[in-house]
């Protein structure tokens, strides 16, 4: 999940979250950040394969903002997600940190 300057959250998948976050910061990539720039990677999960990642992305996008914020607030806890297909690897940072992607429009 990436937090935008306006507080909205963006969710997506990538094989290289740091590279993808840096693209968002530079204004390249998702049009989501045209309205408000990316400021922090607030949540990251590692999945075993592309299919698992897509399923997890879909599930997270279906959550309300409060549920997403609860996920973020647990950033110190590495937990198993779903049937063990994905593992939470949460992270928090500012623009100069190492970060990853969710969207709550």
UniProtKB/TrEMBL annotation:
Transmembrane segments: none annotated. It holds the Pfam family GIY-YIG. Residues 1-70 form the GIY-YIG domain. InterPro entries: GIY-YIG_endonuc (IPR000305), GIY-YIG_endonuc_sf (IPR035901), UPF0213_domain (IPR050190). SUPFAM superfamilies: GIY-YIG endonuclease (SSF82771). PANTHER family: UPF0213 PROTEIN YHBQ (PTHR34477). This is GIY-YIG domain-containing protein. It comes from marine sediment metagenome.
């Amino acid at each position: 999940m990436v937090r935008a300057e306006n507080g909205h959250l963006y969710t997506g998948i990538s094989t290289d979250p740091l590279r993808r976050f840096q693209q968002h910061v530079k204004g390249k990539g998702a049009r989501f950040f045209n309205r408000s720039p990316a400021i922090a990677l607030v949540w990251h999960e590692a999945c075993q394969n592309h299919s698992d990642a897509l399923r997890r992305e879909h599930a997270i996008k279906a959550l309300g903002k409060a549920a997403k914020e609860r996920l973020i607030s647990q950033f110190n806890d590495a937990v198993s997600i779903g049937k063990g297909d994905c593992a939470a690897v949460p992270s928090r940072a500012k623009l100069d940190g190492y970060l990853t992607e969710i969207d709550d429009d």
